[in-house]
Write a structure and sequence with these properties.
Helix content is 3%, strand content 31%. With 150 residues, the protein is mostly beta strands.
């Protein structure tokens, strides 16, 4: 089973991954104390790498991402900044015309781990297992995990 992490923040398609790994210390009386390990955003821990996780966004560039039914990352509508990737909002609660993006690699039998945020009044989602059908929007070929602020 492939394990995927999509750590990035979007306003209409928002992800940021954070993981806290606990280190346990045991004393003579078997008390256990959890000590969180600081993890930088847009990175994988050694344990995640050992477990086969794949980082899908490096926090710096749009490498690996492109428009749905397109060859390149959209020139307008999407921004990579502050360790995030997000679509620019219209100001009315929906995306401002950046179109859908997808990771340019196919996966099957995967486990997806992510966090995301949405703007006030926002309507966002993640389509998964999408098929690119020329002329058809992504929602015609894929289920969507949706988040909205209504």
């Amino acid at each position: 089973m492939k394990k995927l992490i999509i750590p990035f923040l979007l306003i209409a398609f928002v992800y940021t991954a954070c993981n806290m790994q606990e280190q346990k210390q045991t004393s003579d009386n078997d008390e256990v104390e959890a000590v969180p390990q600081e993890v930088k955003p847009n990175t994988l821990t050694k344990q995640e790498l050992d477990d086969g996780w794949i980082l899908m966004f490096n926090g710096l560039t749009s490498d690996g991402w492109r428009s749905h039914n397109g060859e390149t990352f959209p020139e307008h509508g999407w921004v990579v900044e502050d360790g995030t990737i997000h679509v620019m909002g219209s100001g009315r609660g929906e995306a401002g015309g950046g179109g859908d993006i997808l990771f340019d690699r196919k996966f099957s039998n995967f486990e997806l781990s992510l966090e995301w945020k949405v703007s006030e009044g926002g309507n966002s989602g993640i389509f998964y297992l999408a098929q690119e059908i020329p002329g058809d929007p992504v929602w015609k070929s894929a289920p969507e995990m949706q988040i909205l602020d209504n």
